[in-house]
Write a structure and sequence with these properties.
The complex is a heterotrimer of chains A (177), B (509) and C (531). Chain A is an all-alpha fold and 177 residues long. Chain A has helices spanning 2-22, 26-46, 50-75, 91-114, 129-139, 143-164. Among the domains of chain A are: 1-77, NADH-ubiquinone/plastoquinone oxidoreductase chain 6, subunit NuoJ (Four Helix Bundle (Hemerythrin (Met), subunit A)), CATH 1.20.120.1200; 130-163. Helices cover 71% and strands 0% of the residues of chain A. Helices cover 70% and strands 3% of the residues of chain C. Chain C has helices spanning 10-26, 33-57, 90-108, 118-137, 141-150, 152-162, 167-195, 203-210, 215-232, 241-248, 251-276, 278-305, 309-329, 333-364, 375-378, 380-393, 400-411, 421-450, 487-505, 508-529, and strands at residues 67-75, 80-86. Chain B binds chain C through residues 346, 385, 389, 396, 400, 403, 405-407, 411-412, 415-416, 418-419, 422-423, 425, 430, 433-434, 437-438, 440-441, 444-445, 448-449, 451-452, 455-456, 491-492, 495-496, 498, and chain C through 30, 73-78, 120, 142, 145-146, 149-150, 152-153, 156-157, 160-161, 167-168, 171-172, 175-176, 179-180, 183-184, 186-187, 190-191, 193-194, 198.
Chain lengths: 177, 509, 531
């Protein structure tokens, strides 16, 4: 049963990921991403990390990808980039080789490691232990990093507004013209 | 089911203790956070005519953040720990915090006129810059993978936007996008490696990871984790072959941002690398050392050879900073041999400090000269000695220092590196030192080419009216020049830092 | 090595005094040329005065000891100290550097190179003097290295800004060659430091501890130092920067380069490489000797092929430094004494030749040998000085050059410490042929330039009476004034001419200073090599 769920979820993740990069239509790519994120959520469920699974679905699949879709539709689906133009012809084969090589190396490493790592104890399935565990970790050991991510949000907001706002006032290409 | 460390975590559930927070130790970060908000809100209410005040305010914030760094160094314990040793303020982190704040202050001085005259969004620029510096300041104390990653993102994400600051210039856009895409990719690789480390050791705390790894008996996944982590960080320090973003980004970004990237951002990458390699990956030396050896040798050589061919001064400085990165990597190669720990730290930190001075100085000159010539070509420096002897002499100091000619700072930095490497005494170290020696000569060639223009060539357009240097850039030049010369003549001033850079001591706990 | 700490302020003041002048000059506006020149002359003069005082305070009875010794902590962490001292080996070179700088600055009074800007020119020269003097007094490897490198940039700019037509190429070549050598030298220094227990960079410690390093390692470390010093000398395969640098450099640069800078390399061999690495020295001695002799012959043949007077003198430098290196490679008291004497003699003689070449260029605006002739008729005093310097250069007995070459050749007859006698005697014969070639090219040069009638290009112009026009006018386009030696030139040159004669007639004056130190050096070598 466990194996079955694992294989199914992994197939979702990989299939979705392939879809993201192979689909011509950006909307389809975004939907592929949803599939991937759902697959990851299934994995979380299988690991009894229910809270993370819920967050995964609500935040990623629900909020973020929906925003993606909005942006894609607002910008217009047709403005797909022409991927036929390629500066360095060697890049694509090279990328393929490196990609396949990385997959192979990772697989070998995982397969050789698998037997030597002891399985961790299962989480207590009862109640809200998941949430407690996470929150205690976040608010004790990792509290500083957690709080600092709020600064990251300021950065994101300030930056996004700036980069998208219509230019006002004079600018010039001063340097290196 | 790779979740070996969860036992201890579960045990904590029922004994919640609020973390003790040492506010004094966090003061530099807090000052910066207050400053970020202050600038953000004051900027909202200021008219366009008063935007210049933002630069002054930002500079003051950096100086204010410097105060707790000093008090922490003077008062109290040598080492303050928080969050179970995940955030440590000790001599090592204080020196680096000081370097970052000093560099940031100089960078504010350098950016001021460029932003004012370009009509860029000044307030927001400084907000982003402070956020990035906050990330760097955090990085120096972070002793946990999560904290390191958050700090790294905090310092990188504002930098992506700053690189694209000149929105109408397509090259600035290219710079930002290239930096963003490759930076995010590098972060992903780094995170992937970190997740393996966590999965196989059950902890994100660096010292715990270091204790869990077993030398000579690394799991396949752990080897992979080390490779990914080092690869991800290599992007940040633009080490060859992960350097391809650097020249285009450096050239396209506004010059002060380029200076920021090549000095502060790069230094932060080195800090992360140092912390992780020394604390967490010490037992994995058999993987780390060869990898760093190759990275260092490649970075120096390729960076230099590419720099030789550049005609644009900023591109040349970009490649030169790549190759300087190779030199900074050199001492890390001999980590774990004999008592090299202290001297490795010292060599890297001293190099970072001196590199900050001389490289920021060189960029200040580029900014000052480009205000008049409006050109980034090396030939635009022709005849500088004739019409701006002061700038010419300063450029000579910075270039000679970068080339490593005594008695300027760059020399003592390089000397320390060679000394540390040769201290290891094995063949690999000697070969690396010889590669480094050859590279100092190659590097001298292109630095001297700039000086040749400055001193020996005629002014390209015959315009020999004196250059007006704004007072803020004058201040930046004064700070960097004094630093470059002083550290070269009296290196004892900073080499003493070595006594308190006790990072390896943390391993013993 | 024993030390004496008498008058220990002398060397520091003597070395860094020029910086005071530099500081003063920085605040003088560029336009005040006379004032700038005055300050420079006063500074160099004051430095020389300190040098003369040093000569008087030096205890010649104990010339083998380091005198005026100072040892102050400098960079504690890397165990490098500010250690300076002077013994019989370094005293002549230290003093020579002060004399040469002073005279060159006096010469500059009237003969500023065309690029102008005496402020920077004189400042660079004073900085150069600090580096040169410092190199000769340093008794700590790191301090030595710093001073050794300090001379690089000023010389680079001196050639590159005030030099001839191909100055940019020549200056960069000079810079990169030297940089290349010193990079390897630094690695070798560090290797030596760690191999001797990482205790100290002081010469005294390294001399006593260096001999204990295993043979093979010594050979490798010596190789690194060899690269650094051989480029500076320059020895045969590394010499190609020299003709370019000399030809393109302004007169002042050429004189300093020939008189002092080249000696930094040979001094490094005598002071550092050989005493610290005796086994390495023994292993490398045949190589050095062979390269030295190749340099002698190659330099001489190169001279015969030159059409440019300055380039010819530059190649003669390669040959003369070959004799110096041959003397050093014998590892005997006689050979090293000869080498040290040769260093000073070459400095005086070749410096003099470059002065004359510079003045000729100043008057004729060319140094093409084929275009010059009849110098003796047109300006007899200049012609005689050229003849005198050429005679000294070819090693005429009774002049200083002889005592550098003849004993070096003699020393090669019986090299020390079991070096291959057959090899060295063969080399001795070849080197002797080199002296004949030297006579050939110098006399030929003299014949072509000084004898005969003045070339029609410059004839019809009467020599200007001496002393009539002290302020030399720069008439770049027409040669209406071919004047004989000017008063300023007499002031700058007389000390050289006198010294060449004095040391030629009474060489013991210098041998007496150097011999005790050299004897001790060779004796210490003997302790390591023949235990």
């Amino acid at each position: 049963m466990e194996l079955l769920v694992f294989v199914a979820a992994s197939a979702m993740v990989l299939g979705g990921a392939l879809g993201v990069i192979l689909m011509r239509n950006p909307v389809h790519s975004a939907l592929g991403l949803v599939l991937t994120l759902f697959g990851v959520a299934v994995h979380f469920v299988a690991l009894e990390a229910h809270f993370l699974a819920a967050v995964q679905v609500i935040v990623y699949a629900g909020a973020i990808v929906v925003l993606f879709l909005f942006v894609i539709m607002l910008l217009g689906v047709d403005s797909a980039e022409d991927l036929k133009v390629d500066g360095l012809t060697i890049q694509r084969p090279l990328a393929a080789i490196i990609g396949i090589g990385t997959v192979a190396i990772v697989s070998v490493a995982v397969l050789r490691t698998r037997s030597t790592i002891a399985a961790g104890p299962a989480l207590e399935a009862s109640g809200d232990s998941n949430i407690r565990l996470l929150s205690r970790n976040l608010f004790s050991d990792q509290v500083l990093a957690f709080e600092i991510t709020s600064v990251l949000l300021i950065v994101a907001v300030a930056g996004t507004v700036l980069l998208t706002r219509k230019q006002s006032g004079p600018t010039g290409a001063r340097k290196g013209s | 089911m790779i979740f070996a460390g969860s036992q201890s975590v579960i045990a904590q559930i029922n004994q919640w203790v609020a973390p003790t927070i040492d506010w004094h130790a966090l003061a530099p970060e807090l000052v910066l956070i207050v400053g970020i908000n202050l600038v953000l809100f004051i900027d909202l209410s200021l008219g366009a005519a008063k935007k210049w005040a933002m630069a002054t305010l930002t500079g003051l914030v950096f100086l204010a953040a410097f105060i707790p760094v000093v008090t922490l160094a003077v008062i109290g314990d040598a080492s303050r720990e928080m969050f179970d040793g995940r955030y440590v303020v000790d001599g090592y982190s204080l020196i680096l915090k000081a370097i970052f704040l000093l560099a940031a202050y100089v960078l504010v001085l350098m950016s001021q006129n460029e932003l004012e005259e370009g009509g860029y969004y000044q307030g927001e620029f400084y907000v982003l810059m402070m956020c990035s510096v906050l990330g760097m300041v955090m990085m120096t104390s972070a002793r946990d993978l999560i904290a390191i990653f958050v700090a790294l993102e905090l310092l990188s994400i504002p930098a992506y936007m700053m690189a694209a600051w000149r929105k109408r210039d397509s090259r600035s856009n290219e710079a930002g996008v290239k930096y963003y895409l490759l930076g995010v990719f590098a972060s992903a690789v780094l995170l992937y490696g970190m997740s393996f480390l966590y999965g196989t050791t059950g902890s994100t705390k660096l010292t715990d990871i270091g204790a869990s790894l077993v030398d000579g008996d690394l799991l396949g996944l752990q080897v992979l984790a080390v490779v990914f982590v080092l690869g991800g960080l290599a992007f940040k320090i633009s080490a060859v072959p992960f350097h391809s973003w650097a020249p285009d980004t450096y050239e396209g970004a506004p010059t002060p941002v380029t200076a920021f990237l090549s000095v502060a951002s790069k230094a932060a990458g080195f800090v992360a690398l140092m912390s992780i390699v020394m604390l967490a990956l010490a037992p994995a030396n058999s993987v780390v050392r060869p990898m760093l050896w190759v990275l260092a040798a490649l970075t120096m050589t390729v960076g230099n050879v590419m720099a030789l061919r550049q005609t644009n001064i900023v591109r040349m400085l970009a490649y030169s900073s790549v190759s300087q990165g190779g030199f900074i990597l050199m001492p890390l190669v001999v980590i774990g041999t004999g008592n090299a720990g202290d001297s490795v730290l010292r060599a890297v930190i001293v190099y970072l400090l001196i590199y900050a001075f001389m490289n920021l100085g060189a960029f200040s000159i580029v900014i000052a000269v480009a205000r008049r010539t409006r050109s980034g070509e090396i030939t635009s420096f022709g005849g500088l000695f004739g019409y701006a002897p002061g700038l010419a002499v300063l450029m000579t100091i910075f270039m000679a220092s970068l080339a490593g000619i005594p008695p300027l700072g760059g020399w003592i930095a390089k000397f320390n590196v060679f000394k540390t490497v040769l201290d290891a005494g094995d063949t690999a170290a000697y070969v690396l030192a010889l590669i480094g020696a050859v590279n100092t000569v190659i590097a001298a060639a292109y630095y001297m080419r700039v000086l040749r223009q400055v001193w020996m060539a005629p002014a390209p357009d015959g315009d020999v009216s004196p250059i007006k240097v704004p007072s803020s850039i004058q201040a930046a030049l004064a700070i960097t020049a004094v630093g470059t010369v002083l550290l070269g003549v009296l290196p004892g001033l900073v080499l003493r830092f070595g006594d308190i850079t006790d990072l390896t001591g943390a391993l013993a706990r | 090595m024993e030390i004496m700490t008498n008058d220990n302020w002398l060397l520091t003041v003597g070395t860094f005094l020029p910086l005071v002048g530099v500081l003063v000059m920085l605040f003088i506006p560029k336009a005040e040329e006379q004032l700038l020149k005055t300050v420079a002359v006063i500074t160099a003069g004051a430095t020389l005065a300190v040098g003369i005082l040093t000569l008087f305070r030096f205890d010649y009875g104990q010339a083998e000891k380091l005198q005026f010794f100072v040892d102050v902590t400098w960079i504690e962490v890397i165990r490098s100290n500010y250690t300076i001292g002077l013994d019989g080996i370094s005293l002549p070179l230290y003093f020579l550097s002060m004399v040469v700088t002073f005279l060159v600055i006096i010469y500059t009074w009237d003969n500023m190179p065309d690029a102008g800007n005496p402020k920077s020119f004189l400042i660079l020269m004073l900085v150069l003097q600090v580096g040169m003097a410092g190199t000769f007094v340093a008794q700590d490897l790191i301090l030595f290295f710093v001073f050794f490198e300090v001379v690089l940039l000023p010389m680079y700019f001196m050639i590159g800004v005030w030099g001839g037509e191909h100055r940019q190429y020549a200056s960069l070549k000079f810079f990169l060659y030297t940089m290349f050598g010193s990079a390897f030298m630094l690695v070798a220094f560090l290797a030596l430091f760690f191999q001797t227990g990482a205790e100290s960079f002081s010469f005294m410690h390294l001399v006593s501890a260096g001999g204990l390093i295993s043979n093979e390692v010594q050979v490798w470390i010596f190789a690194g130092m060899f690269l650094g010093f051989a480029v500076k000398v320059p020895m045969f395969p590394f010499h190609t920067w020299l003709p370019d640098a000399h030809t393109q450099a302004p007169t002042q640069g050429s004189v300093i380069l020939a008189a002092i800078l080249l000696k930094l390399g040979t001094y490094g061999f005598v002071r550092i490489a050989i005493p610290m690495l005796p086994e390495g020295a023994r292993a490398w001695a045949p190589v050095i000797a062979i390269l030295a002799v190749i340099g002698i012959i190659y330099g001489a043949l190169g001279c015969l092929a030159q059409t440019d007077m300055k380039r010819l003198i530059a190649f003669s430098s390669v040959a003369h430094m070959g004799f110096v290196m041959l003397g050093i490679s014998t590892l005997t008291t006689l050979g090293i004494n000869a080498a040290l004497f040769g260093m000073v003699a070459h400095g005086l003689i070749t410096g003099m030749l470059f002065f004359v070449a510079g003045s000729v260029k100043h008057r004729y605006h060319t140094l093409e040998i084929s275009r010059l002739s009849g110098m003796l008729k047109q300006m007899p005093r200049m012609g005689w000085i050229l003849g005198f310097a050429a005679m000294a250069s070819l090693g005429l007995p009774g002049l200083a050059g002889f005592w550098g070459e003849f004993p070096a050749i003699l020393a090669a007859y019986s090299p020390g410490f079991g070096l291959n006698v057959t090899l060295f005697r063969t080399l001795m014969v070849i080197a002797a042929v080199g002296t004949v070639l030297a006579a050939a090219y110098l006399l030929w040069l003299y014949q072509r330039t000084a004898f005969g009638e003045p070339s029609p290009e410059f004839s019809g112009q009467t020599p200007h009476p001496v002393g009539a026009g002290v302020n030399a006018d720069h008439h770049a386009d027409h040669h209406d004034e071919i004047r004989d030696v000017t008063p300023i030139e007499w002031i700058a040159w007389t000390p050289f001419l006198v010294a060449i004669v004095v040391f030629g007639v009474y060489p013991q004056l210098m041998f007496g200073v150097m011999d005790p130190a050299v004897s001790e050096l060779v004796a210490r070598l003997g302790e390591s090599l023949n235990p």
